[in-house]
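Open question from group meeting: does this chain pack into something compact, or does most of it stay loose? Before anyone orders reagents, we agreed to write out a predicted structure and look at it together. Recording both the input and the output here so the notebook holds the full record.
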Amino acid sequence: MLFQRVKPLDAILETAVRRSLRRTLGAGQLVMLGIGAIIGTGIFVLTAEAATKAGPAMMVSFVIAAIVCALAALCYAEMAAMVPVSGSAYTYSYATMGELVAWVVGWALVLEYTVAAAAVSVGWSGYMAGLARELLGLDIPHAFVAGPFDREPGLVNLPAMGIALVITWLLVIGTRESARFNALLVIVKLSALGLFIVLAVPAIRLENFQPFMPNGFFARTVLDPLSGQVLTVGVAAAAASIFFAYVGFDAVSTAAEETTNPQRNVPIGLVGSLAICTLIYLVVAAAATGAVGAQPGGELSRSREALAYVLRAVGQGWAGDLVAVAAGLALPSVILMMLFGQTRIFFTMSRDGLLPPVFSRIHPRYGTPHVVTITTGLFVALFAALFPVGALADVSNSGTLFAFFTVALGVMILRRTQPDRHRHFRVPGVWVVAPLAAAGCVFLFFQLSGATELLFLGWTAFGLVVYALYGRRHSHLAAAAPAA
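Structure tokens returned:
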């Protein structure tokens, strides 16, 4: 039976030892990688989306999404410390719920990382086009900053395609080099957000927070697929979309196999990066709302450069330009982490026999999974060049929420089936935390639009076909199983 193909934890660790990646990352680098993955599109781009859906109560939406992520992060930390190998939720599901569930989780993570990387690439393209116009007086033709399937069609989004290819090259030449590049961009992002906070907080006016919750708490969002117009919004629906702002923290766990002392450093990277980013998000959201207001339909909700707009509106235009420049420089670090996570998931699935073995080849010089990195990067570049994938952020969220849900279940299953196994990190109050994490993921999933949920089901169905045609027969567990 497929659900009986459970890969023992000891076998997972043994496989990783035989075909392992180079361990070069420490706790500080993991925290920086986590911050690099989290801070980006969410705060620089989705602030306007949050204002449209929830008004000033978007701060509540940030808190709701952060709570669900924090609960999931604790579950991830226990799993990652116990199974310090690549694969993230896919590997954990393989060890607890079997191969079929693991495949679906891995396939969902492919959706999460690929769509997110392409979406951020398109977002970066918009910032760079705006900067070229504002600072250099260079108006890039629309045909070359929009794809043929955009709402305002162009020919190809060259900047989006270009940045995806550059990040792919960085990942091919080495994890340590990528981490150093990422650390530099994280410093740029934190400096820009620090400048924003210093200048925007003094401009806060209490009247800008009223009415605080103009669209109520519960709501269903109905999107016109052509215009993207939100017909109904609310705090809960905004939280489901804002969840994209936290997508990426789980990428820290995909680096476990490349981490020194992973039992200690992976939990630090997961929880530390999430805590820092949550605090920054809340302060920035409060400052933006208090400075200019955040009512649906207002100027902030319509801005494509939300933070830069706030600073210009309070008379700090020079700082607004600097923040826009920082966003243009820093968003590539998010693309890097999305691609990093995607390639490590594919690498591990290939190592288990569920995908062709070529995807688990390691470069003899750089020690990186170069084939899968190049393949993934080319697809992300293609999607970014042709499609308005920024509108698919909710689709990325659907895959993430499913993966987080399975990790929470996996922690509870292992506590029952292997209670005596040594755990370097234990979820405090696991029988409260893990169920709340699972319930929170389910709650946010059903706050997404019906179209998004259907797209997720369609992607899952396609993945099951791939599994039936290849993975089921080539799985290493299938080969090892005795004939019926």
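Observations to bring back to the group:
The chain has a mean pLDDT of 79.
The chain has 20 helices and no strands.
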